[in-house]
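Kindly inspect the following:
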Amino acid sequence: MIIKRTIITTIVGLTLVALVAPVSANALTIADLQAQIQALMAQLAQLQGSTTPTTGNVPAVCAGVTFTRNLTTGSTGSDVKCLQAVLNQSATTQVATTGAGSPGNETTTFGPRTLVAVKKYQAEQGFTPANQVGPLTRAKLNAALGGVVTIPGQPPVIVPTGAGLTAQLASTNPASGTVILAQGLAPLAKFTFVNGDNAEVKVTNLKVNRIGVSLDATLANIYLFNGAKRLTDAASVSSGLITFNDAAGLFTVPAGGSVTITVAADLAASAGQTVGVAINAATNV
């Protein structure tokens, strides 16, 4: 079996690169595996306990967050917590001065006080206050997050801003876990494509690179999925590159919306390798 580890790096331009590197554990005992997992969990806990940004004015809770959906009363998630943190950077738009929602006590729930703060923020930006965080507000918030967030022990996260198509590691990217040798449709990575324009975008070509210490033959068949829907026939790896083409469009990203695409592969039965996939350049989309 294989233990899978997720690594995030960044590249200037269109793409945030996601490296999903399964580490072969075929020769290890169950005790060895448990020890490795416990060590990884300890490292993760240590990183999560250190959340003070070292550069820029981007709140630490916004690391890896991009506003890709409309938010309203009742919404929950890490993007809501980031929203509150951004609002709390100004005394005029603070969600609360004490307790839940106040600076340092942001929550993942969008409540009435968050909505009041959002409307103040929208008015300050020259927008008509609304009962939601819509496309205009999301674009402004993403612009406010532009730059680099650095958290001790973690690589910098670049938040995409502006118009056009951007790609980033999905919040649902496979977490640490195990996959089996010769497994079919093993999820290697998930990428979220965000369209900042006012017209839909069709992606007709996508190239992903095989990474890690592995062979092309390690990935027998590679597919693109949108949820449970398979978008492509099986592709193969050639000199480390996997290419998907469809003149009619592999998938469409709606105006002001986003689509999350999964790269899945049939794994070969060989052991002792590390393998993953990455989008290496803007020209690969």
